[in-house]
Design brief:
Shape: globular
Structural class: mainly alpha
Number of strands: 0
Distance between the termini: 104 Å
Number of helices: 11
Largest sheet: none
Order of helices and strands: HHHHHHHHHHH
Amino acid sequence: MHLRITVALATCGIVALGGLAACAPQHNDETGSEGANAESTQVAFTWSYDSTCAQCHEKEDGSMDDAACLAATHAAEGTTCATCHTDESGLASAHKNATPDEAKKRATKLRSTTIDEAACLSCHGSYEELAAKTADLALLTDSEGTTVNPHAMPENEDHASTDCASCHVMHDSEPAEESAPEYCDSCHHAGVYSCHTCHD
């Protein structure tokens, strides 16, 4: 009888220990199912215009439905990612060996590609046409009362890199009325638009 009780208690003890072990934190090695899933998200993909941009560019994709963003206005007119992002070789290079997890961390701002202004101007007209439309705009007025037409800036080396996207931020809700003066102030930090008045 004592033997049966001892065996029964030993069996219960083993079952209880097994239950406790099952509740303990588990260590996953890379060969486990979770390791396989983590590894699968690290697989590099090959970019093409058929790729789903939203997979990594979640913020930008969301802006296509956000009425506060220019991207939504353009999307309503049928504009897609490929309409503006036409630098195929640059995009292929920028996405080379990219993984979704890595891209979500880095996919925040264009660094190695640009937006071709021809895409903007094909719908909005030439700079001359735009300058005529904004001739009376006083948005860019400096502390000395000098007003600059944003579409007819003085041509010089410093303005050579200024393009449509410098002021018109597609995937952000900040309007050009705010982003344009900020862009100008990034160089004209003294609030004066006349060049060579601060530095030699």
